Amino acid sequence: MAFWNQKKTAIDPSPKTHPPAEKPDEKRAADIPVKSQSGTAPSTRGGLPNLAQIKYIIAIASAKGGVGKSTVTANLAVALRCYGANVGVLDADIYGPSQPGMLGATGERAQAVGSEIAPVTKHGVRFVSLGLLQGDDGPVVWRAPMANKMIQQFLANVSWGSLDYLLIDLPPGTGDVQLTIAQSASLAGAVIVTTPQDIVTGIAKKGIKMFETLNVPILGVIENMSAFVCGHCGKETAIFKGAGGQRLSKEHGVPFFGSIPLDPELAASGDEGLPILFEKTETAVGKAFLNLAQTLLTQIEQGASDATRALEPEKTELSLTGDLLIHWPDAHKSIYRPYTLRVHCACASCVNENTGQKTLNPRTIIPDIRITTVGKIGRYALSLRFSDGHTTGIYSFKRLRQLCECESCSGLRKES
Ligand code: ADP
Fold first, then answer.
1. Whose CA is nearest to atom 12 of ligand 1?
2. Is residue 60 within 6 Å of ligand 1 at its C-beta?
3. CA 381 to centroid of chain Cα atoms
4. Residue to probe by mutation, ligand 1, list 60, 62, 69, 71, most atoms within 8 Å of CB
5. Which of 92, 340, 377, 395 shows its CA 20 to 30 Å from the CA of 179?
């Protein structure tokens, strides 16, 4: 059995109309298997122990600001809670943190416990935001390295405890913060939020491309502000022309999760800090969020994609000689020398992201380098730590299969 086999989340098919209150951590901790492997320390999600007890980390991304990504994150979190999942939200939109307002914690502060930040809980959702550390009036002028440092602290120092889902509300764009999160947080995948307009889907494509480059599966596309439903006569009016969300999903071959109508009540609920599912489950918007949550749960349960699943190793182990062994689902076994894997590291410090040229000088790697830890990232990659202290290497299953050095695989490579 694979060392990281994950237990399925028990989905409550009939969601509660109100999100249930927080459950004690201990109850869930037993449900979540700690990943371990023979001969090495338990996996800590790429060296981040505070994320180790989170089953699925999902980035909510939009590439463009103002399309409703934070609104979707807050309401989706509460909708997942209605299905009985333990949910957290990391507000990584540090240039414009809006989760404290949307989740009803304006003016509250997160507590520091030693060197750790304790999340605030609202509507049964644990969350952390820069707005809980510096308040709403603090400066949001960050140079990229500072922003990145803040995000690294969020990833390393928040005491989440055990969670089924952590939703990360990404800032708009495809910059350093997005890259750091995609490379460090062991994402199960990303959900893309767009509006129907071409101009927005054009920018959303860049976000999809970024995740594809980083081998992060796109779980689905959500179209927000799809149509305005008149509260008096029920007539639908498409304010923004186009069916951008559906088109985006078709063009990229990723699932379409659904649409959320444009509804003044949703905007008001965000301003009031009372997520729509708190009172208005029966509205079109309330139902839309419950449907989205169910689709996401199903999608996660089924695995990120068939293609990814077909490539997912059955088992990985470190041999007594320090080689990495991978048992593939087709019964093939690959054996990798640590040196080979270190040389082929494709992280941002070993390869120039823009040109694709290798910047790592293989001569700087000691021949008897060892792999100290093997972790799993979502259902698509392994993260490897090496004895030279290198920790940022992410090896997608696809790439690992390509790197197999056995006679039949290298023979096939020569033929093709
Ligand atoms: P982003 O995180 O993409 O910058 P926000 O979630 O902050 O966007 O949303 C921007 C504004 O649009 C907010 O005032 C929010 O309340 C409003 N909004 C978002 N989605 C909807 C919707 N479906 N209907 C009405 N207002 C919405």
1. 68
2. no
3. 13
4. 71
5. 340
The number of the ligand 1 atom at minimal distance from the alpha carbon of 98 is: 7
HSE at residue 400, side-chain half, CA atoms within 13 A, is 29
- 124 in Cβ contact with 22 (< 8 Å): yes
Residue 61 and residue 170 in contact, taking contact as beta carbons nearer than 8 Å: yes
CA–CA separation, 250 and 74 (whole Å): 26
Contact assessment for residue 254 and residue 220, using Cβ atoms and an 8 Å cutoff = yes
Atom from ligand 1 closest to the CA of residue 71? 6
Query: In 3D, which of 15, 48, 2, 56 has the Cα closest to residue 32?
Result: 56
Domains of the chain: 25-304 (3.40.50.300), 309-415 (3.30.2020.30)
Q: Please give the pLDDT value at position 379.
A: 65
Q: Is 226 in the pocket of ligand 1 (CB under 6 A)?
A: no
Cα–Cα dist 296/315, whole Å: 26
Span 98-127, pLDDT tens digits: 999 999 999 899 888 888 999 999 999 999
- Both tokens assigned to 337: 């020398």
Distance 224 CA to ligand 1 centre (A): 9
pLDDT (0 to 100) of residue 148: 80
The pLDDT of residue 122: 94
Q: How far is CA 388 from CA 164, 342, 370, in A?
A: 33, 10, 8
Interior CA angle at 252 toward 287 and 172, to 5°?
70
Q: How far is the CA of 262 from the centre of ligand 1 (A)?
A: 9
What pLDDT, on the 0 to 100 scale, is given for residue 271?
94
The per-residue pLDDT for 386 is 93
**Distance of alpha carbon 165 from alpha carbon 85, whole angstroms:** 7
Give the closest residue (by CA) to ligand 1 atom 13.
267
Cα dihedral: 406, 410, 412, 416 (round 10) = 160
As given in the structure block, the two tokens for residue 378 are 């979502």
Q: Is 54 helix (H, G, I), strand (E, B) or coil?
A: strand
* pLDDT averaged per 10 residues, the chain (length 416): 35 61 39 30 61 91 89 96 93 89 92 89 94 69 73 91 95 83 86 88 85 84 88 76 81 89 91 86 88 91 58 89 92 94 86 76 94 81 89 82 84 58
Scan for tokens 């991978």, then name that residue: 326
Q: Is the dihedral of CA 303, 58, 399, 365 positive or negative?
A: negative
Beta carbon of 189 within 6 Å of any ligand 1 atom: no
